[in-house]
Amino acid sequence: IFICIKFLQAYRGAIEVFYRVLLWFCISVRKIVNLDNHIAHACAGLKADTRVLINRARVECQSHRLTVEDPCTVEYITRYIASLQQKYTQSGGVQPFGLFTLIVGFDPYTGSPYLYQTDPSGTFSAWKANATGRNINLIREFLEKNFKETSGQETVKWTIRALLEVLSFSALCMRLSFSLLMLSMTWYFG
């Protein structure tokens, strides 16, 4: 489950991961990755598809930076990922990408935060708070009923309350990590 919530001029993400196999390396289960200095990507779905999509998006970010000499916007890379996902639904002999993505970041020109979601069909939409993964309907209902822009401390409490809607407390204590994308364009993991 990945929940992303806007607060003031930052985005806070909470991710909950269950390890089904004890000998799983942490590197292989990264769910939040940087696409560029100011853009992060979180996903739920098939891991092999995730790696392919992330690599293509990173190459596009680098290519855009080399060609235009400016970093790409969050909307630009979201449109690229959505068009790539949509292209794989129309081509014969290829399997569509089996994953939902949340793309979050700051506009490099204005500093405004953005959150987008893409789905396997290639459609994308902008959000203030969203979730993806297991039991997202319950979390989305909670977000719709209780959403308000808050400070950093309140957002952490609010995110944990949203996770508690679908998880037991013992499951929540198993593995929970937070990340924070600030306007300084740095991801903080805690």
TrEMBL record:
Family affiliation: Belongs to the peptidase T1A family.
Superkingdom as given in the UniProt entry: Eukaryota
Any one Gene Ontology BP term: proteolysis involved in protein catabolic process
Keywords: Proteasome
Presence of the UniProt keyword Hydrolase in the record: no
Alphabetical list of InterPro entries matching this protein: Ntn_hydrolases_N, Proteasome_alpha, Proteasome_alpha-type, Proteasome_sua/b
One annotated Gene Ontology cellular component of this protein: proteasome core complex, alpha-subunit complex
Stored Pfam families: Proteasome
Species this protein is from: Trifolium medium
Keyword Isomerase: no
Lineage of origin: Eukaryota, Viridiplantae, Streptophyta, Embryophyta, Tracheophyta
Protein name (record): Proteasome subunit alpha type-7-like
